[in-house]
Amino acid sequence: MESIVRDVRYACRLLIAQPGWTLAAILCLAIATGANTAAFSVINGVLLRPLPFKEPEQLVMVALKEPERAQTRPFSLSEYRDVAARADAFAALLARTFLPVSLASDEGAAMVEAELVSGNYFDTLRVAPLAGRFFDAAADGASDRSKRSSATSSGGADSAAIGRPSAVLSA
């Protein structure tokens, strides 16, 4: 134990004698610790933490890969309906896509990102509404998108947004 105390004292004397190197070492350790924490946070959130759904290991994403491009694209509504009718390998198939819309409410207009989803979206993910009810599969392809998006888009996490009228100005 006495030798450890002696070594610590010696190390402290060396650090005090060379403040420039000490500062550089402390900065390197701080930056490395911060980078390591940031990298772990991303890996934990994306790879390690399970998705907030029941049986997340059962979920897969299906998309179209075009041969002439190196990227995938979402299904159109007619393609989704065709694939869903033939998809015997899946218990259920849902569709979703994002698009920017201008949403008008009593507070004014705002640009928001809307998520258009198929009628079985919430049933497939096995989630329940916090209040009210979700639309069902009969709503697929319905033209009244403003009703379907108003509760989720206009208020974000505001529970008072449910039932409050809003209108999609452009899509």
Taken together, the total number of domains comes to 2
Low-confidence stretches: 143-155
Note the overall shape: elongated
Which strands sit side by side, in order, in the main sheet?
4-3-5
DSSP strand content? 15-25%
Give the helix tally: 5
Estimated structural class: alpha+beta
First-to-last CA distance: 72 Å
Give helix and strand order, one letter per element, not per position: HHEEHEEHHE
Radius of gyration: 27 Å
Could you estimate the helical fraction of the residues in percent?
40-55%
Main sheet makeup: 3 strands, antiparallel
Structural overview:
The strands form 2 sheets. The protein has a 3-stranded antiparallel beta sheet. A two-stranded antiparallel sheet has the order 1-2. Strand 1 and strand 2 (72-73) form a beta hairpin. Helices cover 41% and strands 16% of the residues. With 171 residues, it is of the alpha+beta class. The protein folds into 2 domains: 2-48; 56-170, no CATH class. The chain has helices at 2-17, 19-48, 77-86, 121-125, 145-153; strands at 64-65, 72-73, 96-105, 108-117, 167-170.
